[in-house]
Every structure is written in C-alpha cells, then in structure tokens.
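Following up on my earlier thread - several people asked me to post the actual chain instead of describing it. Fair enough. Here it is, all 229 residues.
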Amino acid sequence: MPTDTPAATVLLSGGLDSTVLLHHVACRLRRRPVYALSFRYGQRHRRELAMARWQAAAAGAEVRHAVLSIPCLAALAGDGSALVGGGPEIPDLAALSPDERRQPPTYVPNRNLILLALAGAFAEAHGCQELYYGAQAQDEYGYWDCTAEFVARLNATLALNRRTPVHVLAPFVGWRKAEIVRLGIELGVDFARTWSCYRGGRRPCGTCPTCVERQRAFREAGHPDPWER
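Reply from S.P.:
Thanks for posting it. Predicted structure:
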C-alpha cells in the first residue's frame, strides 16, 4: 500500500463529532482503507449505531464498518453511570452543579480507555498505525478521557509496542463543537443522520447535556440543525 495513503481506524459512535471525523479521514485525508469501529456497550442512546452504519456507507466504498458488542461495560458501570441502561436517569444540563459539570453523571467509568484499548488492538491486527478518536473540548461540561493530556499519555503507552505501535490521533481535541459543525458542512455531512441525545428517544430531548451543546454549536456555526426542524 502506498505510504501516502496509510490505512486508518476511526472510532465511530454515530454522533456528530465522530461522524465528521470519519468523513475528514476518508475524504480529506484520504486514508485507504478506513476501518470504522463502533461499540454496543449497553448505552441508552444505542440508536446512534444505526447512524454509524449509515455514515460508514456514505463515507465511501473504502470504509469498512465493524460493530463490536461489549455488554460487560454496562454491567461493570452498574448504577455508576446515567448513560447505560440500569443507571440513574439522564440529567438536564441545567440541573448540573458546577462541580458535576467537571465530570457529569453521564460519564461511564474508563469507557474511552477501554474502547481505545480494544480499538488499538483492532487497528494493530488490521495493519493500521493510525487510530482516530473524536475527542472534543466540550463547552459546557467535560470528561478527563477527552483531553489532550489523556491522548498524550495513552500514546506514550502504545509507543512501547516493539513492532507495530498504534498512534491515537484526536484532531478535534482542542476544538469547539461549532468548529466541528463548520467542518462537517464543508465536507457535506448529512447531520440528519447523526444522533447526539443521551436519552435516545424518537426525537432529541433538547435538554440533556449533549443536546444543549449540539444546539449551541449549530447556532454558533450559523447553520440549522436538521433535528430542530
């Protein structure tokens, strides 16, 4: 395979950030092939996986989509996370205290570390030295495993691999969500085929943390969110 078009793996949830990242990697960076990897881990908003399948197909013939099921993650989280079935109710963003916004109840313990470890194994097995991850600088709340420091420390560990070290790339880690929306518009992303709402109903609730952040991002970007029509 030509060195200027290396294979890549993209962690694809079906949400806004990872979808734009997939199109960026496949269409702008022109990685070949691209493996889009999704996880079914007991999340309440599992309808995002249908969006992931659609977006993987829309990103081109060179994108190969895989969905891995790891229900043990929800079992491990138990009632320690609102994001998985069996946990507490999803809170509205407005109900979170300043301290809770530093690490909200929707945090799943070690989720991103677990998913990236599995994705790293997948990438290595498929000859990909690049693993793309849609971490983004949330405007209203935050997770420790979506930071530049987390990515740097993870890469320091992966670099210990003696034969095929996988490098985690998080190009949006310092971006505001509105910037990601603007890039998606440039790439022609169909945002109607993305899902963000943590509650996972038929339509977005409009009040959970990710719904509020998404609404503000589209308004800041000056572009209508198709889910608000």
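Residues 111-125 form the longest helix (15 residues). That should answer part of your original question.
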